[in-house]
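Chain and conformation:
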Amino acid sequence: MGERLLVILGGGESGVGAAVLAKQKGYKVFLSDGSSLKEVYRNELNAAGIEWEEGQHSVDRILQADEVMKSPGIPEKNELIIQIRKKGIPIISEIELAYRYKGDSKVVAITGSNGKTTTTSLIYHIFKTAGLDAALVGNIGESFAKQVALDPKPVYIVEVSSFQLDDIIEFRPDIAVLTNITEDHLDRYDYKFENYIRSKFSITKNQKTGDYFIYNMDDEVTMEYIDQFKINSKQLPISMAHENSGAFIKDGDMYVRTGDDFMAMSVYDFTLKGKHNQYNTMAGCLAGTTMEIRKEKIREAVQTFQNLEHRMEHVATIRGVEFINDSKATNINSTWYALESMDKPTVLILGGVDKGNDYSLLTDMVKEKVKAIVCLGVDNQKIHEAFDSAVSVVIDTASAQEAVVAAFGYSEKGDVVLLSPGCASFDLFKNYEDRGAQFKKAVIDL
């Protein structure tokens, strides 16, 4: 039979991680990327002796594959994917490949339209505080497959997107978390919201009776569809409106129940502020209790958790204007979530290297929440085209300091200045961390 050929489409973090794992497990591996690879990934592939190509797809060679792993960024409508499907070659996602080789390790998987990065990070913090040797993988940080290949752990905490869930076969988390479902990425689901919803719920499709499913019973979409899926795992709801068998908040206290055990804690002790973060915290605490982590450890973790730097990070409030650093928002969806959580008039700092962004996804949110847009990029033409008619002020700046000064000028007491660029940072900065750091310095210097 010979070696099985695994073709990997897309040479980003997940593609390269999958290539490394597949090569280690004895597959013949060929990685193909239609655009160019980052230097660091080229070096990694060469060091592992993996064949790759960039700037093109050798279709004949790809169609020889026994199996194809595609990057979550490649839609089903892609011509190459259509040909692969037509030939009947199975397509899997990186999380499926990683799952195949994870051994006895436990998997906690988190998905949802909003809040998944925060919830994932909090669960990791709870597990680490309790002394569990866990890895934080998926959309956040390292690729799941690369972690399995190079540094296997007894527990993987994986942030998964709907795109990754679209191509699972056996992937089965011991604990699945669905934070919520809002209309997002509909372009990838033939503009049918149901397709996107089905994709999110597939996180439960292989679960067995001993597994857990944590979901938000206050989320209308989740509740409208939950009965349409056969869910075998033990369901643990979270809510602010209903007392339930999972976790709920009542009169400023959170109660967490799994089985006979019960813990209570004041929401004022949460380091994460804001209503959406109370849901994230409940989900995190439930994940902790299902892993039988002691209440004291969960409580300690929730009181010491620091939100990620550059992810909706409060920098300072100056003369009544709050500055928030969300430099980690390198795509439009991230910016959408950031705006969605704003409850004050917002001056938005937007722009950078655009990866074919469709700014129209932000139009309604911008009209509702944003009073001025400050562009921070070398070429801001598309932003002007998208928003000049929607917002009265759209201006150009060429440095973090200039952007902060301009944004402050358009703000008044009670407003928020939000750096949530929706773009990569390479035109003016080294990376998103550098962009966030320069923004924070400029705010402090005001």
User: Anything to note?
Assistant: The mean pLDDT is 91. The CA atoms of residues 351 and 376 lie 5 Å apart. The longest helix spans residues 275-290.
